[in-house]
Amino acid sequence: MKRRLLISLVLCLFFSQAVFAQLQKAKAHWTYTFSKPEVKKGETVDLVFTAIVDKDWYIYSSDFDPDLGPMLTTFNFEKNNTFEVVGKLKPQNPKEKFEEVWGGKVRYFEGKGVFKQTIKILADNPVIKGSSEYQTCSHVTGLCIPGNDDFEFKGLKVVAGAATTDTQPKVGQTTSQTDSSSEVVATSSDQPADTSITINAGDADTSAQAEAAATLSQTLSSEDDSDDKSLWGFALAAFLSGLVALLTPCVFPIIPMTVSYFTNQEKGKLKAFIYGISIVLIYTLIGTVVSRLNGPAFANFLSTHWIPNLLFFAIFFVFGLSFLGLFEIVLPSGFVNKMDQKADQGGYAGVFFMAFTLVLVSFSCTGPIVGSLLVASAGGEVVKPIIGMASFSAAFAIPFTLFALFPQWLKSLPKSGGWLNTVKVVLGFLELALALKFFSIADQVYHWRLLDREVYLAFWIVIFGLLGFYLLGKIRTPHDSPLEKVSVPRLLLSIVTFTFVVYMIPGMWGAPLKALAGYLPPQSTLDFDLNKRTAGIASNIAPGETRKYADLFHLPHELEGFFDYKDALAYAKKVNKPVFIDFTGHGCVNCREMEARVWVDPAVQQRLREDYVIVALYVDDKTELPEASWYTSKYDNKVKKTIGAQNADLQIVKYNNNAQPHYCLVDHEGNLLVKPKNYDLNPANFAAFLDSGKAAFRKK
């Protein structure tokens, strides 16, 4: 401990010399009060230590590993016969985060920190004084400053009479809560340092859950908070996240569609600019205002509920038929006349509607990226979520706006001829294919089994096969001009299209099709899988073991596991293995991609199969549970009735995260063994993650 403390002090001195080149005072100002104004001799009273911490600074708490590195807050009392220290120091609702430099979790306070220490009064005029040691650090500069103050408590009135209780005190000269699990005290905020909370129907422990909800709402996530040293850094991170979101399967294919909308329109560049501004405004308003009203469950509703997904399916399907030439989408003549009278107001409304549609349909893939922003908004944060969502949406809107402003970037053919209609028809085929993705999400979430993997692939094979024949000129739509010869670009596109069709055909009988992992329904929905191997594969689960919901869900690659959190923990305890928690979803694109590209790796599969008890928890499943299993969440005070709602609530409350995929390695009590992992397509990294969890479990 002394060595780690010495390192901490050296770092603090180094930063103070480099940044300010002068002595700095700790950025905390203390007040000392009693929990009640008077007591009887022999009774107990709480000493309340209150630290007011400067803006952009924080003070470390007293209830985490003292050997980790940072200085814990401690209070050293001068011993005398007028009082006795009872129990341990109790910090009141500190926050928690993972600090990379120390390699572990720390607990801290921002703005205001409160510590309580119970004492027993032994004399009429107690003398209560001593000194404190603590450490304050800056979110902005990284500077850390140790503090050392003297304290004295005055003003307590000791009245005549005997104490009503006989307390057995623990007397000590120094009080610092380093073993938070060793004693349970009467305050509502006493919480193990792990902040791990199990949600059960009728759970009476509301205080610990309220603390976890407060921690979650105060921080973007346990990982992000350590990286974002300022609002500028946070805005930059959000902007980069917006650029990454453009590369997701639900967003990237939509970019070319904007070109056909703005091409040959009156005031097209102005409308394109309004289009980009609308994206930013809608994302900022929807992502902050609506999330404050509905919490992170709203994003989950948009991406998983059957109503919005079938609506998105219908929109894409209708647009696809329109581009193929079946009909033209026009506003009613009466409405058009009114819009003409209002100086093209209707045209701008159409631009806004298109931007609004983009924002809604993109939630299927961008929801996990902005999920932490939504949690922060729901928990009371105002400035940070607004800045984050504005930065995210600005990056998200730039390509759409630029392509809409300069559609010539995507067209090099002469203006004359029928190539414009060809572009529309190609977009029509693509929209029909993409429409199936939204129908598939609803189909998986509600277990309709109308669009299993082979049916989905059959539609895509036919659609892209017809697209290939269209590019060769073998098929003509109503508005196409006669094609006397096929140009080289069209021939090359047709080759690529038919190659894609040939690639998909083996998938009808079980080929994994890794390139389409994010688009296709799970492999387990195949009715006939020639690639399925059962002989020679050892089962993950002992014969005869009951697995709840095994008839609804399946793991990929012939892995076997659980689909209920409590069942998995109980079985893991029985076989003495750690638990691999897969927070996933039917509509989670990146989850399917991880399964197809990472879980398929032999090294990863071996570790999952041999070293862990696997539990897959679907956060978007709509299967309603018996009423006896319902409970009201301590996080958002909403009744959780479905499998998905309860799994999502567990992820938020216990593991302070609401994004998928999210992988946690835990012990038999559900406590984290190592830092969780999210989307990472490097199998070696994932195997190392599994090895680290196994090693931590053995050590523990």
Structural class: alpha+beta
Could you tell me how far the N terminus lies from the C terminus, measured between alpha carbons in angstroms? 20 Å
**DSSP helical segment count:** 19
Average pLDDT, all residues: 74
Query: In which range does the helix fraction lie?
Result: 40-55%
User: pLDDT below 50 for ≥5 consecutive residues: which ranges?
Assistant: 1-23, 164-229, 335-346, 375-381, 412-417
Compute the number of strand runs.
18
Describe the sheet with the most strands: 7 strands, antiparallel
Strand content: 15-25%
Radius of gyration (CA) equals 30 Å
Overall geometry comes to: elongated
Oligomer: single chain
How do the helices and strands line up, and which of them pair or pack?
Layout: H1 2-19, E1 28-34, E2 38-40, E3 44-53, E4 57-60, E5 74-77, E6 83-91, E7 95-99, E8 104-110, E9 112-121, E10 128-138, E11 144-153, E12 157-159, E13 174-175, H2 206-218, H3 224-227, H4 231-245, H5 257-262, H6 268-294, H7 297-304, H8 306-324, H9 333-341, H10 345-378, H11 383-405, H12 419-445, H13 453-471, H14 488-504, H15 565-575, E14 579-584, H16 589-597, H17 602-611, E15 613-618, E16 631-632, E17 639-640, H18 643-655, E18 662-666, H19 683-699
Parallel strand pairs: 2-12, 14-15
Antiparallel strand pairs: 1-3, 3-9, 4-8, 4-10, 5-10, 5-13, 6-9, 7-8, 10-11, 14-18, 16-17
Helix pairs in contact: 4-11, 6-10, 6-11, 7-8, 7-10, 8-12, 10-11, 12-13, 13-14, 17-19
